[in-house]
Amino acid sequence: MRTPVLAGNWKMYLTPAEGRQMIETLRPLVEGLMDREIVLCPTYTALAAASEAIEGSNISIGGQNMHPAREGAFTGEIAPPMLKALGCRYVIIGHSERRQYFGETDATVAEKVRAALTEGLIPIVCVGETLEQREKGVTNPVVEIQVRQGLAGLSPEELPGVIIAYEPIWAIGTGRTASPDDAQQVCAFIRSVLAGLADDGAQQTRILYGGSVKPDNIKELMNRPDIDGALVGGASLKAESFARIVRFEEQ
Ligand SMILES: O=C[C@H](O)COP(=O)(O)O
Predict the structure, then answer these.
(1) What is the CATH number of domain 5-246?
(2) Ligand 1 centre from 235 Cα, in Å?
(3) Among 117, 114, 182, 186, CA closest to 150
(4) Is the pLDDT of residue 11 over 70?
(5) Can you tell me which residues form the catalytic site (predicted)?
(6) Rounded to two decimals, what is the model's pTM?
């Protein structure tokens, strides 16, 4: 039995005050839901306010990225122990926006995954194909390379400590969601790739879907056997819509 994960990625939105307000509104709407993990990933500057605002609740926080080193002369970067010190339990690694705009590769993803696990952070590792790759019919090989290289060097025992987020790039922020069946197909394929790395571990590893997840499609997505939750962008900025997603409630 895999515990569902509903994670909100605020990207470069919400100031500390706006983030705090969002969490204060969210808390009563998701209170008592202990059978799922509820995660918010604010900007670095909103992490401290979010950390205070979630205290005593069933909501956790995570970083959107981090540097793999524990410290060093890396202007503008944030180290894993700094995320930990702010109360983060999770960290998103290799989001397609990081890969597209900031030159992240499967090799840097692998380095960061290792650093996150060493620090006791749960990495949410993002993979997914472009529209061009989907149209060429190469989704599976593209995703397989990202999974294998991004998780390179992990032992079979470490695998269940990682969360994979399948996010087709063409579905991010476009309002165009992969159909639940298409998303299920790729998530099942990812699980088969994981099974090659760790037989039992693959059954325990959570695989999320991301890309225009909304209250009106979450239920259908969660009905699929290999989709264990969602990584939500736009719809996680408002407490009401994120709460509906967390509760698997259609509008
Ligand atoms: O990290 C979240 C994804 O990029 C999905 O974003 P979206 O829900 O706005 O499409």
Answers:
(1) 3.20.20.70
(2) 8
(3) 114
(4) yes
(5) 95 (electrophile), 167 (proton acceptor)
(6) 0.97
